[in-house]
Amino acid sequence: MVHRLKGGCHCGAIGVELLLPRPPEEEIVGACQCSFCRKHNARTVSDAGAKARLVVREPAQLQCYDFGLSASEVVLCRRCGVYLAMLMREDGAAWTTINVDALDERARFTRPAEPRDFSGEALAGRRARRKARWTPTELVGWPEEGGSLSPESTRAAAPATPAR
Ligand SMILES: [Zn+2]
């Protein structure tokens, strides 16, 4: 049975849908020890048997932030500041770990969060692990959808383009 969960940022600009193969109560919850997730005390779920959608209703509010090895980016709402997911993209496909607390039914994730520290991992191994363990994700309404990837248009660290 598929368990359908919905959520999103606080102001509604970016929505999240997660189809889990098992009840949230049985999902393993991770506490990523990366420097970003620590600052949010984030709990995340990544299940390769799940499916996720990140639905951008207001593209101007989409904020992607990357750091470290840039193997992935953090997806945030520019207006309300909510941290939605870690995202990795490759060859037109996408994988995420979803921030459990951005989901409406966050209270159903009752397993204690397991600390995960991948800081010693090389970039190649990191991408392979994520493809095997993260959740395949459909990006809906993203500015670069259907065209060539131009993440710079939404990336905070890129040189400023005056019109955003
Ligand atoms: Zn928002």
Question: What would you say the CATH architecture is?
Answer: Beta Complex
Number of domains as seen in the coordinates: 1
Helix content: 10-25%
Uncertain regions spanning at least 5 consecutive residues: 146-154, 156-162
How many beta strands in the DSSP annotation? Answer: 11
> What top-tier CATH class fits best?
Mainly Beta
Inertia-based shape: globular
Radius of gyration: 15 Å
Order of helices and strands: EEEHEEEEEEEHE
Largest sheet: 9 strands, mixed
Q: Give the percentage of residues in beta strands.
A: 25-35%
Distance between the termini: 42 Å
In DSSP terms, counting alpha (H) and pi (I) runs of 4 or more, how many helices?
A: 2
Ligands bound, unique: zinc ion
**Global mean pLDDT:** 87
Instruction: Assign the CATH topology.
Output: Metal Binding Protein, Guanine Nucleotide Exchange Factor, Chain A
Structural class: mainly beta
